[in-house]
Amino acid sequence: GAPGPGAGARVMACPAPIHLLRFPQWQGSDTHAHLAGGRAAAAIVESVLQPSSVSAVPIFEAENSCDPGVAAKGQSQCVRHLEAITRQARVARAQLDELPPSARVFTCGGDCGVEVVPVARASRLWPGLAVVWFDAHADLNTPASSPSGHFHGMPVRTLLGDGPPELLQLLPSRLEPSQLIYVGARSLDPPEQDYVDSHAVTLLSAEPASSLPDRLSAALRKGRFGAAYVHVDLDVLDPSSFPHVCCPAEGGLATSTLVAAVAAVGSAVPVVAGAGLTECCGDPEPSRPELEAVARALAELLLPRPDPPPPPPMSLSPPAWPAHYRPIAHEPFGDGGQATLDTLARYVEADQPVVLTGADIVDVERWSDNAKVEALLGDKAVLVKRARGRRFRYWANDDPGARTAPGGGGGGGGAFGFEPPTEEASLSFGEFLAEAERLPPRAPAPLAVRALA
Q1: DSSP secondary-structure letter at 287?
Q2: Is a pLDDT exceeding 70 seen at residue 331?
Q3: Rounded distance, CA 38 to CA 410, Å?
Q4: Is 399 a residue whose pLDDT tops 70?
Q5: In 64, 153, 267, 302, which residue has its Cα 20 to 30 A from 226's Cα atom?
Q6: DSSP string covering 349-401
């Protein structure tokens, strides 16, 4: 008989709550080389990852109930080796159900079909997470649209709820198209392209390679994702970088570009809920450095992150701000902030740009007399920057022309090199104060304002 759900599991001494799921499935591609390639890749991944626990999904042999000739003509809802794929998915689900919710799963295939259960688990634990799919292919076919009947071309569509019923009943959650971000996809079947176009799915091209990490970060931040799952099919790499795949496609990523883009995910979202590495075909030993680099990049996403260092102390020394800035540090003690108001008044009367700094601009309700500031500025329009959380992040746009173009990008890292704020708006100072006082304690807080000429 086949091993039970917990077969092959063992616990190793490691503080990180990371589980390695070894899943060298070959039936999804109908390519036996995925069995050997998956096992070899998993050994390399395990040496890099040093997981706290490991389990292995047994691979079953089963007769194929699907006529490949019929499947190739697209005349039937055919999934080759579906019985074995379903049995293996059921075992994987049982193994992952034994894990605590805090465990992050690293799945090593096998073909891309192994990702269905791990992604669904991550989606259940982190509703609305982004699924970043590094792959030369979209994997968006249905059993009806697939030209081959190979399930490794269907996992994403299955996660969206349009897959084989036998597998759908094993999934605890479904994805929405808005959760998908494809990276490096360049070989889509016509039905897959139609789905991408009709559902406005985000697809980031491999070129220009230099901007890919920034484009990916921007897509994640635009979606306001609180978590992400990262899938890497090794055929996202150009064959010149990694040829050990069963479906190579020219025009892929260099290994260094993939590593940088994977790292960008960790910088753009607070939590990476899981990761997967698939489609290693045959013996990857000749390209071991490339495989280790990708595995290490994925592993670093799952490792506990150190607390960010505290921001450096504020400094208003002359080099700190561009010359046209007029920084005013608000001091609510002693004279009740009157000195700040007097200084502010002089610059406002001269129509010079003003930046308000100091801890109290984050908690505006702590200003000693909001009415004095509001009376001073009246209905004058101000430029407001909002920051994520409550850390100091300074206005980064040092272009004086930005005064006439509210909503500009901001760019750069700010006077002290901090991450730039996420939003910009033009409104009256009175509206700014009213908005600030309505904010809940942990909401993005107004950070800096500047009077607009």
Answers
A1: G
A2: no
A3: 45
A4: no
A5: 153
A6: HTT---EEESGGGTSGGGSS-HHHHHHHHTT-EEEEEEESTTS--------GG
Distance CA 440, CA 291 (A): 46
Strand arrangement, sheet containing 423-428: 423-428, 381-387, 445-451
Contact residues for 330 (Cβ-Cβ < 8 A; gap 6+)? 337, 340, 356, 357, 358, 360, 361, 367
Give the model confidence (pLDDT) of 9-41 as tens digits.
Answer: 333 333 448 999 999 999 999 888 888 888 999
- DSSP secondary structure string for all residues of 82-123: HHHHHHHHHHHHHHHHTS-TTPEEEEEESSGGGGHHHHHHHH
Cα dihedral 294, 297, 298, 299 sign: positive
User: Is 407 a residue whose pLDDT tops 50?
Assistant: no
If we measure between CA atoms, which residue out of 187, 183, 229, 228 comes closest to residue 206?
A: 183
Q: What is the arithmetic mean of pLDDT over 169-176? A: 92
Cα–Cα distance for residue pair 6/205, rounded to 1 Å? 40
Structure tokens given for 364: 């505006």
pTM over 0.85: no
For residue 332, give both structure tokens: 């609510």
Tokens of 303: 């490792």
* Whether the Cβ atoms of residue 393 and residue 421 lie closer than 8 Å to each other: yes
Q: Which long-range contacts (CB under 8 A, 24 or more apart) does 39-42 make?
A: 40/280, 40/283, 40/284, 40/285, 41/108, 41/109, 41/277, 41/280, 41/284, 41/291, 42/108
What is the residue-wise DSSP string for 148-215? S--GGGSHHHHHTT-S-HHHHTT-S----GGGEEEES-----HHHHHHHHHTT-EEE-S-SGGGHHHH
Q: How far apart are CA 31 and CA 28, in angstroms?
A: 8
Q: What is the spatial distance between Cα 129 and Cα 224, in angstroms, rounded to a whole number?
A: 9
Whether a cis peptide bond, with omega within 30° of 0, leads into 223 is no
What does the buried/exposed string (b/e) look like for 123-161 if buried means 16 or more CB atoms within 10 Å of the residue's CB?
bebbeebbbbbbbbbbbbbbbebbebbbbbbbbbbbbbe
Q: What is the pLDDT of residue 309?
A: 58
The one-character DSSP state at 417 is S
Bridge partners of 383, per DSSP, are: 426, 450
Share of the chain above pLDDT 70, in %: 60
In which element (H, E) is residue 451 found? strand 445-451
Judged on CB neighbours under 10 Å (0-12, 13-18, 19+), 453 is exposed
Q: Confirm if 73 and 39 have CB atoms less than 8 A apart.
A: no
Owner of token pair 């016509």: 190
Q: Which residues contact 256 (CB under 8 A, 6 or more apart)?
A: none
Rounded to whole angstroms, the Cα distance separating 83 from 60 reads 9
Between the two ends of the chain, the Cα-to-Cα distance in Å is 80
